[in-house]
Structures are given as C-alpha cells and as structure tokens.
Amino acid sequence: MIVVWILAFLAGVALIVWGAEAFAEHLGAASVRLGVSAFALALLLAGAEPEELATVVVASLRGSPGIAFGDVIGANVAICLVALGVGAVIAPLPFRTSVMRYAILGLPLGAIAAWIAWDGVVTRLEGAILVGLYIVYVGTIWIVQRRPPALGEVHELEEAENAASNPGGRRRISRELLLVLAGVAAMAAGASLLVEAMQQITHVESTQTSLGLTLVGFATAFELVVLAWSAARRGASEAVVAGVVGSFAYNVTMTLGAGALARPLAIVDAASLHFPWLAMLAALLLVVVLAAPKASLSRVAGVVLLGAYPLFVLAVLLA
Q1: CATH label of the domain that carries residue 6
Q2: For the chain, how many helices (H) and strands (E)?
Q3: Which residue intervals define the domain Sodium/calcium exchanger membrane region in the entry (predicted)?
C-alpha cells in the first residue's frame, strides 16, 4: 500500500509542476489579450510560485501544518542551495545590484516570518501581515527599479507580450484562458494528491514535518532548480537569477500568509522547526556572502552550496 501512495505523491508532484508551468506560460498572453492593466498583471505574476502556494494552502486546509511549514522552509532551502548551486556549477551566475537587492531584502522578511512562527502558530491576522509584507516588498522594488519586480516566473510576462504583439503568433483568447484554468486545476489536484499521500504515508506530525522540509520542499522547488540550470546554460540571464532569488521572499510572505489565511497554522512541536528556520536564513546568507566579493556565484560557490544541502537534509532527518 505504501508503494501506491509513493506513486500518488509522484503523480501529485507531476501535476503541480505541469500546472504551474501552464499557469505561468499562458496567464501572460491571456491577460494581455483581455486588456488587464500592467499593474494588475504584474501583481499576479510577480514572484508567482503557485506550486508552493497551492501545496501550503491545501496542507493547511487538510489540517497538516507540518507539511505547510515544512514546504515553505524546505523549498526556500532548496532554492538557495540546490537551484543556485546547480546553476553556478554549470556557469557563474550574475549577482549584480538588482539580484543582490532581492537577496538582501529577503533576509529581514525571512527573519520576520521565523519570528512570527517561532511558537509554532501563525494566526489569520499574522497571515494577513505576511501577505501585506509581500505587497510592500513588491512595491518597494517596483519604486526603486521603476519596473515590476522580476520575481519567480514574471519573466514570462515579456515573452507573453512579445507573442501577443506578433501577428504570426496570435492565439485565441479562449485557448489561453482554458490553459490557465487547466493549470490552476492541475495544481489544486496535484497539491491535494501530494498532501493526501503524505498523510497516508504517516499520520505522525513530526514525520510529516520532516518530509515537508525535505521531500515536499525539494519537489515544489524543483521547477526553480530546472529554471536556474536552464538560465546558466543560456548565459545566466540576470532577470532569471533575480526571479529565483526573489522566490525566497514570496514563500515566507505570500505563501505562508495565504496558508494561514486559509486556516490558522499550529504545530504541536514548535521547537522542531527552530533549526530549520535558522538553516533557511543561513542558506540565503551563505548565498549573499559567497556572491558579494565578485558580484557573482562562481563554480566553487556552487559546489559549496550543493554540499550544504545534504547536511541540511541529514540534520533534519536525525532530529
């Protein structure tokens, strides 16, 4: 029976990844065709990591706070250590002013999220505060850069606008909207299947938390691992690297906040998350320290980051 639920977990991950890709790829073109304002469109896409958001909200609604907390923390650790590590090993990743700004601003946001959740509880009011912090974060970067933040998959917006303005590449609005809705449905179904599989594999909250920190966190961050790998192979676009780094802030604000708004999060053993919270902040700080001297992440830095991830997983499992 356990094999069936492992297969269900993998099927859930596949649905989430496909759904997130379909959502991000077609939302831009559909919105441009429908005449949605650039402001509204950017708020929809900026930092959009719908796979993590869907998983955390479903886990919260299904009464699995360990999975919800674990996914937020575990995905962020995987983003910092695995996604950026893989990209840097292939080719040095640019970490100039805009990218470094995203990374540095993520540190206080991560610290605030850890402080709020330190007692193992995130209320709806605290969830609303976290969502508000995300809006402030997006607004601050927008004002400073005078353009929408290149977080998460917002780089899809430019491609969508180019496609929409090209007569040869025009597609029907109905098809775009159907694909967007299909992506949302796939993410919802995949997240439900993933959470159900975790609940069936183990009913113990501490084990669910460990699996959330490692297996679920890595699975939902996998798309960003592929994104960083692809960016490095194509010459490491600074906007894409900024998007990967900026996803850290999205997860500790919008993703965690949305989960708490759906249903207040409360874990019995709050102390079990103290080390992971600190490890998450340390992972981003390590990225900043390694990238600062030469405004890039070198191959050596990539090896260091990748080497740190198994240590994190081992520490979580041993705890």
Answers
A1: 1.20.1420.30
A2: 15, 4
A3: 6-141, 177-317
